[in-house]
UniProtKB/TrEMBL annotation:
Belongs to the peptidase M48 family. This is Peptidase M48 domain-containing protein. Binds 1 zinc ion per subunit. Gene3D superfamilies: Metalloproteases ('zincins'), catalytic domain.
Length: 326
């Protein structure tokens, strides 16, 4: 967890995403951007489903619309022009897509739409997606939010209902390495790892593991426990506490998946397959169990879950999150 991933906007093919060997033509850049858009929406859809179905398990809920936003500033350099042609970007933040089944899906909102106002606030020059989302969350706490959109010269305002889901967000990181991580608020998954997980249930296992760290407040609790994040995490007490949070995240992930209607056994398949390579040397260190141990533990949780009919399941593990790690 808490892996630092770098955004490298250099991808050459629609599927699978690959680092560009040479600068592409204008057409290639557009297919790169379409591929990245598909990855963003796939990841966001999985996260939204997990964050909605597990609302009862979260300490912090936020009003959500199902609008997936992106910022013009995310596409710099050789992608700037193609991004403007594809997505319009008449303002700093655009609507990258709308999640099926979400409140915003009731409206026809093309991906050429840009966000000009949220309620009374002018957000034409909002600096980040996170800032725009915070404004939506503040304005949408009453059950709906007025969103003004510019689309190819047309301006309109929609009143979009909101629904309460767990706080958190996801980002697909363009990278040729396999990794996933969270800082406690944002979950990052690399495009390389996504490409190797065509099965949504396995990608959901990755998202659920990282999200479990957020639900269990691990990043803050590790910080409060004075656990080093760097090299020294592999020694002594650091190592023991890191390992404990990894085991807890694995165990809770099975419940988060089941509550959202994903097959919790997919986590086991992940660790016996693509997951064996994730994080490079990270898995070899003492902080994570080996893939076989993880798979066996997840299989036990999945078997326990299969005995329970009611949803959402509130596992006992949740009661540990208010305790200091020691
Ligand atoms: Zn982890």
């Amino acid at each position: 967890m808490a892996a630092t991933l770098t955004v490298i906007p250099g991808i050459a093919e629609p599927r699978p995403l690959k680092p560009a060997a040479a600068p592409g033509t204008g057409l290639d850049r557009k297919s790169d951007l379409r591929a990245l858009q598909a990855a963003d929406l796939r990841l966001a859809g999985i996260f939204y489903r997990i964050a909605k179905a597990n609302a009862a398990l979260c300490q912090t809920l936020v009003p959500a619309t199902g609008l997936i936003l992106h910022s013009r500033s995310a596409y710099l350099g050789q992608y700037e022009e193609a991004a403007a042609e594809l997505f319009g970007f008449e303002a700093a933040i655009g609507v990258e897509g709308v999640l099926p089944g979400s409140p915003a899906a009731a409206f026809d909102i093309p991906d050429t739409s840009s966000l000009t106002h949220i309620a009374a606030a002018n957000v034409r020059s909002a600096t980040t997606v996170q800032q725009a989302l915070r404004t939506i969350e503040q304005a949408g706490s009453g059950g709906s939010v007025d969103v003004s959109l510019a689309d190819r010269g047309r301006q309109r305002t929609l009143r979009i209902p909101t629904e309460r889901i767990c706080a958190g967000r996801v980002e697909a990181q363009v990278s040729a390495t396999d990794n996933a991580g969270t800082d406690g608020q944002t979950i990052q998954v690399t495009t390389e790892l996504m490409n190797r997980l065509p099965e949504d249930d396995q990608l959901a296992a990755v998202v659920a593991h990282e999200f479990a760290h957020i639900v269990l407040d691990h990043p803050d609790r590790l910080t409060r426990a004075g656990v080093a994040r760097g090299l020294f995490r592999e020694f002594g007490r650091n190592r023991r506490l890191w390992r404990q949070t990894e085991i807890e995240a694995d165990r809770l992930s099975a419940y988060l998946m089941a509550n959202a209607g994903y097959d919790p056994r997919a986590a086991q398949r992940f660790w016996l397959g693509a997951g064996r390579r994730v994080g490079g040397g990270l898995l070899a260190s003492g902080t994570h169990m080996n893939a076989r141990q993880r798979a066996a533990m997840l299989a036990r949780e999945a078997a326990a879950i299969a005995q329970i009919e009611a949803r959402p399941i509130m596992p006992e593990l949740l009661t540990t999150r208010d305790m200091p790690l020691d």
